[in-house]
Amino acid sequence: MPENKNKEKKSSLINFFFKPYTITDNKALQYSGVGIQLAVTILVFLFVGIWLDKELDTKFIFTFLFTFIGFFGGFYSFYLTIKRLSESEEKNSKSGDNTK
User: Fold this and answer.
1) Which residues contact 46 (CB under 8 A, 6 or more apart)?
2) Alpha carbons 33 and 72: distance in angstroms, whole number
3) Residue 22 and residue 48: Cα distance in Å, rounded?
4) Are 70 and 47 in contact (CB under 8 A)?
5) Which terminal Cβ of the chain has fewer Cβ within 10 Å, N or C?
6) DSSP 29-56
7) Cα dihedral 20, 12, 10, 2 in deg (nearest 10)
8) Domain range list for the chain
9) Residues 57-87: pLDDT tens digits?
10) Neighbour-count burial of 45, counting CB atoms closer than 10 A to its CB (0-12 exposed, 13-18 middle, 19+ buried)
11) Which residues, at least 6 apart from 63, have a Cβ–Cβ distance to it below 8 Å?
12) pLDDT digits (tens, 9 = 90+) for 81-99
């Protein structure tokens, strides 16, 4: 008996902490997340380049190089994510399910 109560308490705590309150399938949130990911990727590579330039006492070569790597990598990821979201949207519309 006490084992079942402990198990129930444990599972309810797990559900409380790890289960989302609401399930969102809003396309606007998914697309805005892609933009944020793009900006963060570029900024992270920019700051890594700046840091390397300071550490290696170079003028701006690493800043330039890492910014372009972040830019192209971010846009490639952006393209793949938009393509995946568009394909899932088309798939849902063809199946007749317009709620997602």
Assistant:
1) 63, 66, 67, 70
2) 18
3) 37
4) no
5) N
6) HHHHHHHHHHHHHHHHHHHHHHHHHHHH
7) -170
8) 26-94
9) 998 999 999 999 999 999 999 899 889 888 8
10) buried
11) 46, 49, 50, 52, 53
12) 889 888 887 887 777 655 5
74 within 8 A of 41, measured Cβ to Cβ: yes
Q: Are the C-beta atoms of 78 and 38 separated by less than 8 Å?
A: yes
CA dihedral of residues 68, 72, 78, 81 (deg, nearest 10): -140
Instruction: Classify residue 66 by burial, with Cβ atoms within 10 Å: 0-12, 13-18, 19+.
Output: buried
